């Protein structure tokens, strides 16, 4: 039966009626027709319903009707309103049985191939390359410790054999290629009211243990409530551990949101989630003006970096904000800034600040995004707190979908920074990086990505062999 | 088992539909010709109405199955009640005329019109607080059959295109995703709710049929700024209101008719119009309304970081 194409062939042959039921039309048959018709109709309806005809009835119903406007009139056999009421009850049943918590998340699995020993820096033994630091710092390192990233978390292939510190080297590949379960993310979301949303994001990271202890870890990067108090829903108030307001990279910091795999060299300053409160509001026609302000314990540096305080160790809080303008042609330009007491310092005497500009455009199947920024942190030798001079740094990234499923991307970036800890150690960075990769949408819940990071140095800093090829298969659930 | 039952069911249904033809072919007594012809006409109408009813019942059941199935698969996909102040569609008893009525006659026409004659309704829309925009008028209370048309509403640049559409009852809607991002098209309009789930760029989900006259607001569960407004009209008596607010509805059966003004940006309003052989006139005065933010398919706000 070709139900999709209209009524079945049997319905187009008049003789079938007589043969099937043995009734030849005659005068008195009209009486029978009136009595048989509804019964057969009911029988057909019941049988049709039982046989699954509804699954295909849409096309049939549409194709079977006459072309002219019928304005039909006839008596009712059954109460159609009862079925409508039943449908409404079904819809209400579903609405009223919604789960209180929505679960989501993803598994991010990859394979990476680092260059060299996997570390992003080398030691300037004997101050050969930079003798001017000979009397200032015991150890001087050249390069970028976070350059050879292998995943969206920003974890590097190896932290290297840095003397004088005992670090948790989460990947610790020592230069060997290998598989890695980058992250298992569990996202939870619930609505206190239709406009008050509670959400959390928990990341599980299975890693190598040591000394008979498991190396697996988990971290909570989001635990917040968002309330949209106005009818326009253009203003949101946040409280908890939440996304930053600085720049734009935080929006796709997670593996399931990021077009590529690894974060930019600037992400360490802008994508960390901090505890506090935040307000974000949109103004004007088409939301052309966006203002976001936050007051948090510390800065929006990432948790693995030197400058992060989940629980504040000083009384002062960090203020941050971003003002963005959306121009015609899907262009968004923003300026961001943050300032507050130095993270991990116990007093408010030392300032830590960042500012920058960002750009986000969307043209057809191409996205262009970029950021430039500067920053400074005084450091506090007596409290073992790092200092920072981010002279400047930035990136420009282009993501392009060539087909509906396949895309390519490229990113160029640089970072000019100096990080120090009292007179013990210093990291001198003048790095550039070129990244290229592919983005392949396998299904609505699975994306495969592969990219190559070409890390380089400039400004008299010797080349560090720390390129990385890495892949990521992100599977949502 | 299902195939056998389907064959039998459709055979029965088809035979029933063809019964009058057989009956007409039969020899009849000359004295009863007039009565027989009347009976035939009435039976035709009954059968057509019954078939329409069967289809509607099946479609309603199908939609219910779909909704329940989606619920079971997704662990619940409830929608918010976003029903507007739109006047409710007529009940079946009001659109289905009484048995024995002339063709084209309707339940709204309580005895005035013959139903075979038609005229033109002309009118004007005046608005306060804004312009007319994309507005439509249609005659309520008359029910036409499904036409089998298919209408595309594309998803492109994270917007629906077209954003406003008018379709006759029973029209199939398809939603090709011409973006490179995933969309999740849904509607919580009572009686017309659906959820297409996640659809990749370049793909088109199976068609859906809107079964209930009235406005249907369609959204994407991922991108909060995507919105399409579809007006499901019960018949072909509809027209777009001109920029100057004027409109004309031709071919409207004579009688007392209910004309409805609808626009996504106007407060919906309905008026009763007496359509005579000379036609009818109506003037609407409506006020502009802002399009308010909507909730996602779970009845929750999207949050400020959704696009």
Give a quick set of tags describing it.
heterodimer; A: 477 residues; Porin; 5 helices; globular; disordered N terminus; B: Immunoglobulin-like; 3 helices; 32% strand
What does this structure look like?
- The complex is a heterodimer of chains A (477) and B (307).
- Helix content of chain A is 12%, strand content 42%.
- Chain A contains 5 helices and 18 strands.
- Chain A has helices at residues 15-21, 29-50, 57-63, 80-96, 267-270; strands spanning 102-114, 121-123, 139-143, 178-193, 196-205, 217-227, 235-242, 274-283, 289-296, 318-327, 331-341, 351-363, 366-377, 387-401, 406-421, 425-443, 446-457, 468-476.
- In chain A, β6 (217-227) and β7 form a beta hairpin.
- A 5-stranded mixed β-sheet of chain B has the order 6-12-11-8-9. A 4-stranded antiparallel β-sheet of chain B has the order 13-2-15-16, with no helix packed on it.
- The interface between A and B is large, with 103 and 124 residues.
């Amino acid at each position: 039966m070709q139900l999709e194409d209209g009524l079945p062939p049997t319905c187009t042959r008049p003789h079938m009626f007589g043969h099937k039921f043995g009734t030849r039309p005659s005068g008195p048959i009209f009486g029978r027709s009136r009595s048989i018709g509804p019964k057969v109709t009911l029988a057909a309806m019941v049988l049709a319903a039982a046989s699954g005809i509804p699954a295909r009835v849409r096309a049939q119903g549409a194709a079977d009707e006459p072309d002219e406007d019928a304005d039909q009139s006839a008596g009712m056999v059954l109460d159609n309103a009862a079925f409508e009421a039943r449908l409404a009850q079904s819809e209400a049943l579903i609405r009223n049985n919604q789960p209180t918590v929505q679960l989501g998340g993803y598994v991010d699995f990859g394979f990476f191939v680092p260059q060299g020993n996997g570390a992003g820096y080398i030691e300037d033994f004997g101050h050969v390359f930079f003798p001017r630091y000979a009397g200032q710092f015991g150890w001087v390192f050249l390069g970028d410790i976070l350059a050879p990233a292998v995943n969206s978390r920003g974890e590097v292939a190896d932290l290297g054999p840095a003397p004088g510190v005992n670090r948790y080297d989460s990947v610790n590949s020592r230069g060997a290629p290998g598989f890695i379960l980058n992250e298992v993310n569990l996202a939870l979301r619930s609505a206190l009211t239709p406009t008050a949303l509670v959400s959390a994001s928990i990341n599980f990271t299975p890693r190598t243990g040591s000394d008979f202890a498991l190396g697996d870890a988990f971290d909570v990067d989001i635990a917040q409530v968002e309330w949209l108090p106005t009818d326009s829903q253009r203003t949101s108030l946040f409280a908890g551990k939440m996304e930053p307001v600085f720049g734009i990279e935080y929006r796709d910091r997670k593996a399931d949101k990021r077009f590529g795999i690894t974060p930019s060299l600037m992400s360490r300053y802008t994508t960390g989630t901090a505890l506090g409160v935040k307000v974000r509001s949109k103004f004007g026609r088409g939301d052309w003006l966006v203002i976001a302000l936050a007051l948090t314990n510390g800065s929006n540096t990432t948790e693995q970096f030197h400058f992060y305080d989940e629980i504040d160790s000083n009384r002062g809080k960090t203020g941050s904000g971003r003002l963005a303008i959306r121009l015609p042609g899907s262009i968004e330009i923003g300026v961001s800034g943050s300032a507050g007491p130095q993270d991990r310092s116990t007093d408010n005497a030392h300032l830590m600040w960042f500012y920058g500009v960002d750009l986000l455009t969307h043209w057809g199947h191409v996205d262009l995004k970029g950021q430039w920024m500067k920053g400074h942190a005084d450091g506090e030798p007596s409290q073992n707190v790092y200092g920072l001079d981010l002279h400047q740094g930035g990136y420009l990234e282009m993501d392009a979908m060539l087909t509906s499923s396949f895309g390519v991307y490229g990113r160029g970036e640089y970072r000019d920074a100096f990080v120090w800890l009292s007179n013990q150690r210093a990291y001198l960075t003048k790095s550039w990086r070129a990244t290229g990769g592919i983005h392949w949408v396998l299904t609505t819940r699975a994306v495969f990505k592969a990219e190559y990071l070409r890390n380089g140095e400039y400004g008299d800093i010797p080349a560090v062999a720390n390129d990385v090829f890495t892949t990521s298969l992100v599977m949502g659930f | 088992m299902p195939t056998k039952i389907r064959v039998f069911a459709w055979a029965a249904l088809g035979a029933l539909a063809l019964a009058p033809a057989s009956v007409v072919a039969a020899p009849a007594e000359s004295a009863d010709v007039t009565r027989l012809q009347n009976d035939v006409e009435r039976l035709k109408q009954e059968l057509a109405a019954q078939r329409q009813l069967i289809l509607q019942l099946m479609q309603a059941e199908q939609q219910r199955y779909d909704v329940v199935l989606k619920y079971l698969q997704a662990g619940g996909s409830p929608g918010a009640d976003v029903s507007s102040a739109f006047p409710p569609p007529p009940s079946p008893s009001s659109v289905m005329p009484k048995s024995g009525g002339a063709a084209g006659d309707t339940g709204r026409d309580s005895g005035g019109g013959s139903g075979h004659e038609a005229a033109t309704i002309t009118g004007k829309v005046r608005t306060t607080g804004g312009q007319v925009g994309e507005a439509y008028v249609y005659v309520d209370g008359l029910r036409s059959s499904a036409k089998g048309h298919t209408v595309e509403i594309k998803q492109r640049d994270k917007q629906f295109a077209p954003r406003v559409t008018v379709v006759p009852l029973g029209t199939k809607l398809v939603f090709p995703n011409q973006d490179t991002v995933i969309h999740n098209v849904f509607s919580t309009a009572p009686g017309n709710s659906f959820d297409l789930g996640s659809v990749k760029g370049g793909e088109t989900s199976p068609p859906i049929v809107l079964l209930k006259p009235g406005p249907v607001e369609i959204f994407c569960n991922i991108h909060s700024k995507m919105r399409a407004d579809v007006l499901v009209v019960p018949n072909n008596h509809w027209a777009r209101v001109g920029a100057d607010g004027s409109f004309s509805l031709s071919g409207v059966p004579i009688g007392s008719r209910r004309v409805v003004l609808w626009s996504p940006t106007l407060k919906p309003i309905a008026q009763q119009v007496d359509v005579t052989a000379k036609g009818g006139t109506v003037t609407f005065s409506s006020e502009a309304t802002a399009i308010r933010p909507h909730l996602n398919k779970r009845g929750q706000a999207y949050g400020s970081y959704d696009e």
